[in-house]
Amino acid sequence: MMPSGSDARDRLEAAMARLAGGDRSALEEIYRSTSAKLFGICLRILKDEKEAEDALQDVYISLWRRADRYDAERASPISWLATFARNRAVDRLRVGKVRQGSVPAEHAAPIADEAPLAESLLIDAEHDARIHHCLDRLDEKPRSAIRSAFFDGRTYAQIAEADGIPLGTMKSWVRRGLQKLKACLERGE
């Protein structure tokens, strides 16, 4: 019998707490339950298996070093880790660590494949529509920018260029939108 979404989340939160306390076996448990999803995020952005594997390794190294920074009140474990994965993949594109044959950062849009999108994976894993409820309460511009950045894997520069606005404006929309999203989630609306 498959564990329910809340059981899986509870186990993952417990493993994160154990890892923050220095329990090495917790990292293996976290890896087994999240690596497929996080690899998919990295692969969609980097479009290269070896690069995605390297980015994924960076995610777990960072997790090992920063597990104590995870706050279950602020985000689910999979959402927190998915953000790590997205940021590591985009960082690799920005600093040019990508091998020959991979696409440049400006072409890092998600590729069509048969696997569910990261957004779908997160929704299925969490069985919790609260974040989407709060996102839907945002104004259209910040909501669209946040969805593009965090669910579609696009960089702020790509989104700003597509919308024909300055990069600073895009960053402001996202920052203010995330602040409102955080407030909504904290209020439990």
Automatic annotation (TrEMBL):
It comes from Qipengyuania vulgaris. Belongs to the sigma-70 factor family. ECF subfamily. It holds the Pfam family Sigma70_r4_2. This is Sigma-70 family RNA polymerase sigma factor. Residues 130-181 form the RNA polymerase sigma factor 70 region 4 type domain. GO terms for molecular function: DNA binding; sigma factor activity. Residues 31-94 form the RNA polymerase sigma-70 region domain. GO terms for biological process: DNA-templated transcription initiation. InterPro entries: RNA_pol_sigma-70-like, RNA_pol_sigma-70_dom, RNA_pol_sigma70_r2, RNA_pol_sigma70_r4_t2, RNA_pol_sigma_r2, RNA_pol_sigma_r3/r4-like, WH-like_DNA-bd_sf. It comes from the Bacteria. Keywords: Sigma factor, Transcription, Transcription regulation.
